[in-house]
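Model the whole thing, not chain by chain.
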Amino acid sequence: MRIFFRAVVIIISAVLLGVGSFYYVANGALSFEPVGDGPWLSGLARASWSKNPYAEIRQARSGLWSLNRPEALSFIARTDGSGAKLTGRCQYRVSDFPMRGEWWRLAVYDEAFQPLENAARRHSFTSHGLYGRQLNPDILLAAQARPGLWIPVPENKAFIVMFQIYGPDPGWFDALEKVPLPHLLKEKCS
Amino acid sequence: MNRFLYQASITLCLALLVHILMVLVWPKIEATRHLQELSLRAGLNAVYHVPAPESAELFPLSGSDFLYSYCIYDLDAGPVRIVPPVIHDSYWSVAIYGERMDNFFVLNDGHTEVDDVSVILAQDAQVVDADALAMEVAADDAVGLVLFRYLIPQRSLLPDLEAARRQVQCIAL
């Protein structure tokens, strides 16, 4: 009877410990790693081509059907070039877009990765839509309307920027620091 | 003391096994849940054209600059033919995912110059009677997702793109 009791305690403890530690690790947010010195982070789609089981779990939980190599590379930024969190109280300029890769896309999302609602119904630009108008554009992220290429962001709220390169150089997947990423600079704050 | 260490060691080893088991099975459980949610709208081997307001809910990090259509393939009864309408001068892709959300095949506008493209998706043991133009793709899993993405480079092209994606097919053979 005593042995049986001990066995039950061991099994229950092991299950609680195993499930608890799994939940702690798996319940984390999607993990991103810095790329170079700038604000850009990598991690999206990484689970498709790395062997990190926790990344795969987080991706599965998030419902992210990401494209595998060599189709696209994705990066996000939560901060500007100085390390300050992106917020609608400030205006940002994104410039120096890479000319390599088939095309790129710049989009803004809220912190839950949902597209930002705005009256202009605009939350992204792609080089597909811009080339022919401007070869190397400057894109402004601001709460108030701006002339030129402007993406509205919510006033007084944090947001994230996603930058994707479609048809990237295959060598970039193994050397993310070599990817030419655009500059994301804060211009002014209210 | 020795008995305590012995029992603690067994507990830790069992906990590690439970943890590893969860790591191995959980992605499939989550993916199955997502596939079931998607199949509620589409059924199996049938195309669902995602209305713009639903795309963010169904596909995180999606955007209003894309049109999304999808089908949940079920290869239990046989291969499935996937036909993406070809659009020139604009990005489109067909991405096929397995039951663990792993993307094992992508076809895009840069991969083909012909107007008639079709993909025959089958499991290894299945006999495929494909025509010469069809691409044969082997799937490890019987169930998964085919996701069609059509970029909207300019709003003025939306009616044409909307009409084109209505031609997407996912047919059980």
